[in-house]
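Please fill in the sequence for the structure shown.

STRUCTURE ENCODING:
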């Protein structure tokens, strides 16, 4: 009787052993088990030659050669500015790139403030050389307001001057003051980038020079609202971008610049944005020769079509730019354009989306004649438009809005509500006043609910149609008197509301 259970146990063990052997053979034939290799694995047979990188035994890409080749042309930038001391609060969408503010005197000591000079503020960023004679590309916000610029190339520091800047695209061009020849980077093709392509970001996050991070292109054509949305066309990447990376290059596996690192998302990890190098290529000649960018201006607010809106206008495909607002006294109005028009072509260039029209009109420059093919009422018509020059936002940015008018105690930034601003933000056409660009938390208006984007239309019963009038009325008020500031806000439908804020003049 004892032999029967033992026989059953032996048979069971043999069945289990056989099942294990069969499973291993089956798994090996299906490619589920690792294959031993005696040397490096090459991926050149499965990847385009231009995208090949060295692969080690661990099958992890090595970017060492790429980093070594690119780093000599990547620079660190220190911008020093002197401002009158003020309590500044709130969040600058770019400020996190500058890193911690370094003040003379060390931690816990108040900085000295020489008579007539103001408080010193040092900020940092990144950039890269684009020519042997010392031209450096960076972000406009890195060098904005700077009184002194220093550029560190490898282990040497040089003085630099601003060669040109364009706030609309947040780009700037610096000139290193030196006669020596520098290593520089080639500009690649950002239009050829595909989502999923490898990219490398190099810069000086938190003053750590030549920090390298890698990732992929996460998306293209992003608009995130940190500058003029008309020109926002960001590359999104998961390559880590941190404080101080701003202005540094985003390069492809050839070592060519495909983007300029510009912004990050506060609420997420590894969501960064770079200005595509195609934008830089368009404006670089003007920055180099003129110091600013001159663009053609049409004067329309446009949006992309989708399937439903295309059908509503009798189109088979959602191609074209839908005009939903025409700016008064603009080239578009003078040429007879109306809201509801669909722009299909600019000269011989097809307009598949708003980006196509914006880029083409901007590239033509002021005074150019452009023939527009328009769909109106089911019929195609052609209108010739003589472009004017787009508003000079570069000059407005060069003289910071924080200091507009010099009314420090109010703690606000402002500018006249121009037709361009109305078009950009959908403000009612009949609204006149002063557009608030900043309201500090220390401002006496802050606690009364006044916010950036609101419009001051009168002070003490006097209309303030522009910034000059606003400043004159406020400065004329006597110490101890009260200002009755009437502001208006509007929604996406153009509906406005108005209220008063009351402020005692110090």
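FILLED IN BY: designer on duty
SEQUENCE:
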């Amino acid at each position: 009787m004892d032999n029967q259970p033992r026989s059953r146990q032996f048979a069971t063990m043999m069945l289990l052993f056989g099942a294990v052997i069969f499973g291993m053979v089956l798994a090996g034939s299906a490619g589920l088990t690792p294959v031993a290799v005696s040397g490096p694995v090459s991926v050149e047979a499965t990847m385009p030659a231009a995208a090949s990188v060295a692969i080690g035994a661990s099958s992890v890409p090595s970017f060492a050669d790429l980093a070594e080749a690119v780093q000599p042309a990547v620079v660190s930038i220190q911008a020093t500015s002197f401002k009158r001391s003020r309590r500044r609060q709130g969040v600058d969408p770019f400020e996190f790139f500058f890193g911690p503010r370094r003040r003379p005197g060390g931690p816990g000591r108040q900085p000295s403030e020489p008579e007539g000079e103001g408080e010193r503020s040092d900020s940092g960023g990144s950039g890269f050389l684009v020519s042997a004679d010392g031209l450096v590309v960076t972000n406009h916000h890195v060098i904005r307001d700077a009184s002194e610029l220093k550029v560190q190339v490898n282990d040497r520091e040089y003085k630099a001057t601003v060669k040109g800047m364009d706030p609309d695209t947040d780009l700037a061009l610096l000139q290193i003051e030196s006669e020596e020849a520098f290593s520089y980077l080639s500009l690649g093709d950002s239009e050829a980038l595909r989502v999923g392509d490898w990219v490398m970001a190099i810069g000086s996050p938190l003053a750590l020079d030549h920090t390298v991070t890698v990732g992929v292109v996460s998306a293209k054509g992003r608009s995130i609202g940190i500058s003029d949305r008309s020109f926002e066309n960001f590359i999104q990447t998961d390559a880590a971008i941190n404080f101080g990376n701003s202005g540094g290059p985003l390069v492809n596996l050839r070592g060519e610049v495909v983007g300029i690192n510009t912004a990050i998302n506060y609420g997420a990890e590894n969501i960064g944005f770079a200005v595509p190098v195609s934008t830089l290529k368009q404006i670089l000649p003007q920055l180099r020769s003129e110091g600013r960018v001159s663009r053609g201006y049409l004067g329309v607010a446009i949006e992309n079509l989708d399937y439903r809106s295309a059908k509503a206008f009798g189109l088979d495909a959602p191609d074209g730019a839908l005009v939903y607002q025409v700016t008064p006294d603009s080239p578009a109005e003078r040429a007879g354009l109306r809201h509801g028009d669909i722009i299909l072509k600019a000269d011989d260039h097809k307009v598949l989306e708003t980006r196509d029209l914006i880029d083409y009109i901007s590239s033509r420059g002021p005074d150019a004649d452009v023939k527009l093919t328009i769909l109106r009422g089911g019929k195609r018509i052609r209108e010739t438009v003589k472009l004017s020059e787009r508003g000079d936002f570069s000059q407005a940015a060069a003289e910071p809005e924080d200091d507009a008018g010099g009314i420090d105690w109010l703690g606000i930034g402002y500018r006249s509500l121009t037709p361009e601003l109305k078009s950009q933000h959908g403000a009612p056409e009949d609204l006149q006043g002063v557009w608030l660009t900043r309201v500090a938390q220390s401002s006496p208006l802050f606690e009364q609910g006044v916010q950036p984007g609101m419009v001051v239309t009168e002070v003490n019963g006097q209309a303030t149609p522009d910034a000059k009038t606003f400043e004159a009325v406020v400065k004329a008020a006597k110490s101890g008197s009260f200002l009755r500031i009437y502001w208006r806000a509007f929604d996406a439908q153009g509906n406005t509301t108005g209220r008063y804020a009351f402020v005692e003049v110090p």
